[in-house]
Amino acid sequence: xxxxxxxxxxxxxxxxxxxxxxxxxxxxxxxxxxxxxxxxxxxxxxxxxxxxxxxxxxxxxxxxxxxxxxxxxxxxxxxxxxxxxxxxxxxxxxxxxxxxxxxxxxxxxxxxxxxxxxxxxxxxxxxxxxxxxxxxxxxxxxxxxxxxxxxxxxxxxxxxxxxxxxxxxxxxxxxxxxxxxxxxxxxxxxxxxxxxxxxxxxxxxxxxxxxxxxxxxxxxxxxxxxxxxxxxxxxxxxxxxxxxxxxxxxxxxxxxxxxxxxxxxxxxxxxxxxxxx
Length: 277
Hints:
277 residues, alpha+beta, Methane Monooxygenase Hydroxylase, Chain G, domain 1, 2 domains, 4 strands, 12% strand
């Protein structure tokens, strides 16, 4: 950071922004350079959560500098592309800036595909078995979609601003290229809107299936309680220490057991007839 400030005379506040862990996407314009802060989505493999990865870009008439913490695959891909296709440098810094931003934005599409696969996976699981694991997966997907939306939304306005900026290294011919970048981020935004609606529908469906499962369990338990109630009544009556009909009959125990079985069967037949089972 000290080297950049001394060699390029970048503003100290921009250097400070590069050192900041969290910084909003923005575009700062100076007399001889632009300073951009862009975010790309990044998956943490251990948790499956999506987080914003910050890429800072300084660009002027004859230079372009990217600053980020750790390895940034799309930035590395853009660098490797320039090394193999050095003729792009002859077109000017504006084309190079477009290439870098285009590579950063394209990195979002595999992340979109991964989110879609996760949605399909949880869709297939909820119809097999409603469980708390599905609830966690649905909430994780919703959180990732909301995080992705918060990453993309401010950059739509940023790229639209960059599209109309007038500076020596941003020629009029580049307006079409940066307009194409705006189309890409708007496509990502529309896709995220669609995914948001899908996962909300999946969550509602899972909640309905879970509620239906709970209702079935409660219904079965209620039926058992209703069946046991008359059996408990009969057993309670014949357990009283008073004179009862047939209490001295040698087969009274078998008769009582048979009566209980008949009551249970009769109630089950009645419940089946009323379509309660």
